[in-house]
Amino acid sequence: MDERRTVKVSKYLSKHLRHQPERIGLTLDEGGWTEIDTLIAAAAAHGFRFTREELDHVVAANDKQRFAIEGTRIRASQGHSVEVDLGLPPATPPPYLYHGTVARSLDAIRAAGLKPMSRHDVHLSADRETANRVGARRGRPVVLTVDAGAMHRDGHVFHVSANGVWLTAAVPARYLRFPGPH
């Protein structure tokens, strides 16, 4: 499977398993799962055909492990804008986590902290490199340091998804460290 096809199928899966399942007549259960055969049939009925082998390749090859398969079911690992309960237990975060963004967002973040926006949770990375890659998707990246240890001590709840993304409801500005001038 060539890289362009892999990306195309991955984006299609993200759109319909995270944001718009109803657009192709798909119903996700409360945990975000759907039957693989149902997904493939719904996609085909709406003009986007892919095979089970292509799906398996996309799931296995995705560097961010965006999707999880359990038996005959599939779901997005996180990043949903539709209501789902991923069933992730609370987890103790490392002392610091990181968030990649761009300079144009810094004033709003300084004022209100990190908010989930259209998602259910704020997504944080365990390392600067990953946060840098995330921020670079929208322009020149800026990496913020999150004092996750202090947040946790203060009662904020964290979860970690199957692919290692740390999730929390919001990050108040007082727990953020902003980089100096570039």
Automatic annotation (TrEMBL):
GO molecular function terms here? NAD+ poly-ADP-ribosyltransferase activity; tRNA 2'-phosphotransferase activity
| Key words, A-Z | NAD, Transferase
Q: Name one GO biological process term.
A: tRNA splicing, via endonucleolytic cleavage and ligation
> Where along the sequence do coiled-coil regions lie?
none
The kind of enzyme this is, by top-level EC class, is transferase
* Protein EC: 2.7.1.-
Statement: the UniProt record of this protein carries the keyword NAD: yes
The record's listing under Pfam families reads: PTS_2-RNA
Q: Where are the transmembrane segments?
A: none
Tell me the superkingdom of the source.
Answer: Bacteria
Family classification: Belongs to the KptA/TPT1 family.
What's this protein's function?
Removes the 2'-phosphate from RNA via an intermediate in which the phosphate is ADP-ribosylated by NAD followed by a presumed transesterification to release the RNA and generate ADP-ribose 1''-2''-cyclic phosphate (APPR>P). May function as an ADP-ribosylase.
Q: What name appears for this protein in its UniProt entry?
A: Probable RNA 2'-phosphotransferase
Q: Which organism encodes this protein?
A: Streptomyces collinus (strain DSM 40733 / Tue 365)
Originating gene: kptA
